[in-house]
């Protein structure tokens, strides 16, 4: 998943970086680094498990701890 695809996925799910980070058991800074250009010195590649979860969320899966309402 490219940085652009990750950011588009997060935005289409209506999630903030903090919300996605919580769902993926990481921190918001890591999400921001994964959304950066691959040429950025702090860029991080998403782990395969993270990509699988994001794709599941895009397919409609919602875990019990999915953010409710407008708490971005």
UniProtKB/TrEMBL annotation:
* InterPro entries xrefs: Cro/C1-type_HTH (IPR001387), Lambda_DNA-bd_dom_sf (IPR010982)
Report TM segments. Answer: none
**What Gene Ontology terms describe what this protein does at the molecular function level?**
DNA binding
Q: Which SUPFAM superfamilies match?
A: lambda repressor-like DNA-binding domains (SSF47413)
Taxonomically, the superkingdom here is Bacteria
HTH cro/C1-type domain segment(s) = 6-36
| UniProt-listed Gene3D superfamilies | lambda repressor-like DNA-binding domains
Record protein name field: Helix-turn-helix domain-containing protein
Q: Which organism is it from?
A: Paracoccus aestuarii
């Amino acid at each position: 998943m490219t940085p652009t695809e990750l950011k588009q996925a997060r935005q289409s799910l209506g999630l903030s970086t903090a919300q996605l980070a919580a769902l993926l058991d990481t921190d918001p800074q890591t999400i921001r680094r994964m959304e950066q250009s691959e040429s950025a010195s702090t860029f991080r590649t998403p782990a395969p498990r993270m990509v699988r979860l994001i794709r599941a969320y895009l397919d409609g899966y919602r875990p019990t701890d999915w953010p409710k309402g407008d708490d971005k």
